[in-house]
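Chapter review: from sequence to fold.
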Amino acid sequence: MKPRQACRIEGESTPVKDIVSWLEKVERKASDLYREASRRFSQDRPLADFLEQMSAEEDWHRRLIEAAAETVDRHALDEARVLLDAKTRETVEGPFQEAAERLAAGHLTRREMLETIAATEFSEWNDLFLYVMETLKGHSRDFQRAAAEIETHRQEILDFFQDTPGARDSLEKLSSLHPLWQRRILVVEDHPAFARLLQTILAQMGEVVIARDGAEGLEEIRRGYFDVIVSDVEMPVLNGVEMCRRSMAMDPEVRTRFIFYSGTRKRPHLDFFATEQIPHLPKPAPLNRIRQAVSEVFEHSRTAHAPPPA
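The token string follows.
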């Protein structure tokens, strides 16, 4: 995603390292403010829980930015195409500073807290963060995952504002932000006609990629991030269970994004599903049940979303 035009200036630019350093500082301020505010509004459980989650996610975003600094060094990305000027800094940091001061004085209201979120999360800070991540995510699979998780963060804010009286004025602004990530679904199925059917019925839920067997599926998983992986079990070259095991060796969290859609009744396979707590949808199943299973994985990713450990 490109930053706002207001941040751009021809003939000048800010080194990527400087933008990354500033973003790291802002993420720390945001995390600290949200954490303290969650204590201030502890009697308002929905808001307090939301702020606590926001704090954890901003802290994780800071760690992403730290990792981005290493990527900048490795890929010699020493110049951005934007100027990080004083006005942009003040637009982002000013609301945080004001809210922190009012919070410390015991005067910060619920409405002011929501206005601070709207003024900052939807400002040039957000634009520049997305710009950095958009620039870097192609360099590694980890940044593709980060983009997907940040899109989840955006959706969480949208949902909270949708359900919160007095916050709906900010919805139009939030909704206008271009998504950083389009959901991706991997279908691993050796029957070509059925694979195309799955691609068709899931196309409205995201980009659908097809792999013809477990070996192709594993290669796709190595190459990029998928929000959901729908896999058969009995396939040539490499079966679905072994593909999942090898995927988990690369990323243990990947099992939470798997769905097995298979007619297998073999005890080792069923034991694997149970042990790893991976959904198993027995063949045959109604098409709407397949879509529902994919939706449930998407929803689980959002409601159980938590930043990875440091």
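Two observations follow directly from the output. The beta strands are 184-188, 207-211, 228-231, 258-262, 280-282. The chain has two domains: 5-175, 184-303.
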